[in-house]
Design goal:
This protein is of the alpha+beta class and about 180 residues long. It has one domain: Nuclear Transport Factor 2, Chain: A (Roll). Helices cover about 30% and strands about 40% of the residues. The longest helix has 27 residues.
């Protein structure tokens, strides 16, 4: 394998830009694959040993086979969905690995109800021969609830209305910086 160019070289800086664009495309492809219900495309975005989980522990998947099993059922459970990423940060920790965070929203229709969610994805990315892939992805939520629940749904920290229950949202209450301003949470 060829040694990477020095970190201050033009070649290195151009490679980083190309990598950032490729990782941004990976995030966009994730949203498109979910909304298109393209399971094979969706799975191709993950490394074979990838992990995918919710920050509250409700979902913890290890490996592409587990992701396949879970999303086979998940894709069938929703009608029309629309996922869209917002801001993304990427920090490289080597030539073939990076971490980052993506904020986003999702609109999901299930059983005739519109569900809205605000999400922060915390990611680990790995370059493989076929390109950048998700090595790990964790979803933390500000809220996940039916549109009809939204007007009153922020009255407490139970902003995840999931499968008939109401459970605490991870964000922003789990953040030390937030708790510094709101010590009672």
């Amino acid at each position: 394998m060829e040694a990477p160019p020095p970190s201050d070289s033009l070649a290195h800086r151009v490679q980083r830009l190309e990598d950032r664009f490729a990782i941004g495309d990976l995030v966009a492809a994730y949203c498109t694959a979910i909304d298109d219900r393209d399971l094979e495309k969706f799975l191709s975005l993950f490394t074979e040993d990838a992990s995918l989980r919710h920050g509250d522990g409700v979902m913890r998947l290890a490996g592409r086979a587990a992701i396949r099993d879970y999303y086979t059922a998940r894709f069938a459970a929703y009608d029309v969905t629309f996922h869209y990423p917002h801001a993304q940060t990427v920090v490289f920790d080597g030539p073939d690995s990076a971490g980052g965070a993506v904020t986003g929203h999702a609109e999901m229709s299930a059983d005739g109800e519109l569900v809205l969610a605000a999400i922060r994805y915390t990611d680990a990315y790995r370059r493989e021969p076929a390109g950048w892939r998700f090595a790990a992805r964790e979803l933390d939520f500000w809220y996940y609830m039916k549109l009809s629940d939204l007007p009153a749904g922020f009255s407490d920290g139970l902003r995840k209305h999931y499968r008939g229950g109401r459970i605490p949202a991870e964000l922003p209450e789990s953040l030390e910086s937030y708790r510094a301003w709101h010590p009672s949470v």
